């Protein structure tokens, strides 16, 4: 490997090439010219003594070395961005860092549109990267520094993460308009006998457990006809069947506004969903991360009347 001094620009170019697997697309991603990115790739190949990208038919594939570099390069970029931003205080107007958030599609749908609008106004060059949940590696990915923040319903957060409640939601049921299964009064036994859709993001059970644990306390079990890893396909499924789903009300309202679906309350009292914002203790005092948390809190405050007190409390503790 040829000795070379790495800059943040070099690492960003390498990350773009590894992500896009295409010189022109990587160049467009960073606002570079295609010839400049080609020269950068040539230099990186010399540095690593490896082709990194290999043409296979009409596309490029990563070499074994390149695949091993992807996560390490992302971590290095984040560390260098943190050093640049935190050394002189975080300036959102000029920062070019990327914030990575772990979100389920439920939180993604209700948070990211408003959060992205704030970024566009306050931090036009800052990027948001949303990745799916991995509840079994949550502590690890935060410890590695590969993610900045998560907002989730997560009753048992790892001990090395700091958490703040940002809003509360409640579970409601969703079905197609005209579903005969819900045409009349619905008893709890009748509710359990319906064909249900259960949501288990990344094989975790926190959303379905809200209902199933409440039923278990009464020695009842609902009939689950299908389990899905996310909410996004549920309304399409409900519109064409007599299935029912139980989900957070805020998401259900988004679906009823766009699909011919209705909501109804389950015939059992369910605990509220306390949605938590969580971050690693190592980033607690970082100016960039403090700013990021303030933006999430502000979005939640505007969407949730009960978030006013939480936002002021968290701002004071940050």
Describe the structure.
The chain folds into 3 domains: 8-79, Arc Repressor Mutant, subunit A; 89-168 and 274-317, D-Maltodextrin-Binding Protein, domain 2; 171-271, D-Maltodextrin-Binding Protein, domain 2 (3-Layer(aba) Sandwich), CATH 3.40.190. Helix content is 45%, strand content 20%. The protein has 12 helices and 12 strands. The chain has helices at 8-20, 23-30, 34-48, 64-87, 105-122, 138-144, 188-193, 206-216, 234-239, 249-256, 287-303, 307-317; strands spanning 53-56, 59-62, 98-102, 127-131, 149-152, 161-169, 171-176, 195-199, 223-228, 244-248, 261-264, 273-280. Strand 3 (98-102), helix 5 (105-122) and strand 4 (127-131) form a beta-alpha-beta unit. The longest helix has 24 residues, at 64-87. The radius of gyration is 23 Å and the shape is elongated. The protein starts with 7 loop residues before the first helix and ends with a helix.
């Amino acid at each position: 490997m040829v000795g070379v001094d790495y800059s943040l620009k070099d690492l960003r170019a390498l990350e773009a090439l590894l992500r896009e697997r295409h010189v022109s697309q990587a160049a467009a991603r960073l606002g570079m010219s295609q010839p400049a990115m080609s020269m950068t790739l040539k230099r990186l190949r010399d540095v690593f003594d490896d082709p990194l990208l290999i043409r296979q038919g009409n596309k490029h594939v990563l070499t074994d070395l390149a695949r091993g570099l992807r996560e390490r390069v992302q971590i290095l970029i984040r560390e260098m961005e943190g050093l640049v931003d935190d050394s002189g205080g975080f300036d959102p107007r000029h920062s070019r860092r990327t914030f990575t958030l772990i979100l389920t599609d439920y939180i993604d749908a209700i948070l990211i549109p408003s959060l992205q609008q704030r970024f566009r106004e306050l931090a036009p060059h800052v990027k948001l990267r949303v990745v799916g949940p991995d509840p079994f590696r949550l502590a690890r990915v935060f410890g590695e520094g590969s993610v900045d923040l998560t907002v989730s319903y997560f009753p048992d957060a790892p001990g090395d993460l700091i958490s703040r409640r940002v809003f509360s939601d409640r579970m409601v049921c969703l079905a197609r308009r005209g579903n005969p299964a819900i045409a009349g009064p619905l008893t709890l036994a009748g509710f359990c006998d319906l064909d249900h859709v259960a949501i288990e993001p990344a094989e975790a059970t926190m959303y379905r457990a809200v209902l199933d644990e409440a039923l278990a306390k009464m020695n009842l079990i609902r009939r689950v006809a299908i389990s899905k890893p996310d909410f996004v396909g549920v309304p399409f499924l409900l519109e064409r069947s007599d299935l029912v789903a139980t989900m957070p009300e805020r998401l259900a309202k988004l679906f009823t506004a766009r699909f011919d679906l209705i909501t109804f309350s389950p015939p059992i009292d369910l605990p509220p969903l306390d949605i938590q914002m969580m971050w690693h203790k190592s980033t607690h005092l970082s100016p960039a991360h403090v700013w990021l948390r303030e933006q999430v809190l502000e979005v939640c405050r505007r969407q949730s009347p009960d978030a006013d007190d939480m936002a002021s409390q968290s701002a004071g503790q940050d």
